[in-house]
Amino acid sequence: MSLWKRLILASSITLAVTVLLTAIPTMRPNGSQQRGDIAVFRVTPIKRLSSDNLVDSMIGLQLSLAIKKAAWNQAVLSVDLAVDDKGGANRVWAADLQRLLELAFVRTDNVNRVLVRFVEPKLSGGVTAASPATILAAVDVRKNDEWLASGLTDLAETDLLSSAEWRQRLRLSVSQEGFNRLGPAA
């Protein structure tokens, strides 16, 4: 066989294999021509929180307050929420806190503790991730807290500062700045 015949044969085989490989994705075993989502783009619920899916899970919560910082370290989720000047801050804080706790303790199974700080960014030439912030309040909730099983759904409707029961449940600490901004606790 001459060199040209072998070269043409090899090129023909390569072309046939290329065409077959190109056609494989369009072939369906049952002949169906419906095209659905590719598995890579399907939304799957997050069962275990990790550094890899922390950003996705925080964005998925669609919180009212801006997330200034989120960290994941050995089963502890730490989140700093930037407080704005909108009215009804107490209810907004409680609703966002409820969403965070539902993610941590209901939808995932590897979070043991949630630390949330409500911070007020100091405006000095613009807000950046590195700008200092005033801590208005802090919350510390643990997975083994007994009230989580029954009381989590009521959190969004709670006035965090006036309810001594909720301040104790959440281990809520409020700074003097926080009291000045939200009013005194009952």
Automatic annotation (TrEMBL):
This is Uncharacterized protein. It comes from Paenibacillus nasutitermitis.
